[in-house]
Amino acid sequence: MENFPINRRFFAVATALTAATLAASEAWSQPKLEKTKIILAASSKSALTALPLTLAEQLGLFKAQGLDLEVVDYGSEARALQALVSGAADVMAGTYEQALSAPALALKCKAFVLQGRTPAVCLGVSPKVFTNFRGVRDLKGKKIGISELGSASHLLVKQLLSRAGLNEADVHLVPLGPSLLGLGTFRSNHLDAISHGDPLMTLLQQKNEVRVVADTRTLKGCHEVFGGAMPWHCLVASSDFLEKHPRTAQSITQVMVHSLKWLQTAGPGDLLKTVPEAYLLGDRALYLASFNQLRESISPTGLMPEDGPRTLSRLLARFDPAFKPDKLDLAATFSNEFVRRAQEGFKS
Fold it and tell me: Which fold has domain 5-118+230-347?
């Protein structure tokens, strides 16, 4: 991965010059923002799925847009959503599923930039337990680790069980916690299977402790599991915020689209130079391997896919009787307008 030092140095210089040129042009042409101090609530700031936001911060893209953005890491999706709903935060970096939750719908929230176009979690089974795994029905009566109840990993298990004619009562779910914190619990509890995200799943694969049997880190795997696009990680704000601060929202979107574009051509060296050392988990090789596993899940454009909201709403309705998709105006829960304007700006 580091065999092309000349090309990589050239790319780094070109990237810096491009960013500097863009920042200079924006400084001259950017209209006055309605609000420059922005509080963004993150569910997990250091997670790989939040990488576009991390890069935008580290590359100084928010400052180039005249934004004084503070990212507050709440450590969970529920707490980040509560910060948005209570007014403690202007924007949330969370999931589109949260934008469809009762509190978000009451606040009339909208997803306006897509970071992750799949949930980026996968299900793996223990090769020691399943020497000849035939399908999800083999999990009946088994212990399955998930990151937490209500998470993407939990939803993946529910979907797979449902398709196999099973339900949660047929298995034993064990919440493990986020990231690598769940590794010890997974091993000490001698679990039969695990549904989780990276870097934990990549580490377990490298150690031959799991065999992945369902993978939503790729578009193909996501479609196989959910039957369509499954938009997940995104930026969410209230409709009121977007309407009262359109130039501010546009600037935030401009930054994120720029970050997503940067990520499409970034190499391993670029990531290691840009991502904070603390986020690399003390293992750069594992971080890069994990990134490569889920790279396809990161949106290249920031746009919400046309069929995504409908696919997710049908899935939520299947597992939550209180969720009524027929009474929901899905078009009001997301907006592609800011991203489209940002893309036009880059073209010009």
Answer: D-Maltodextrin-Binding Protein; domain 2 (3.40.190)
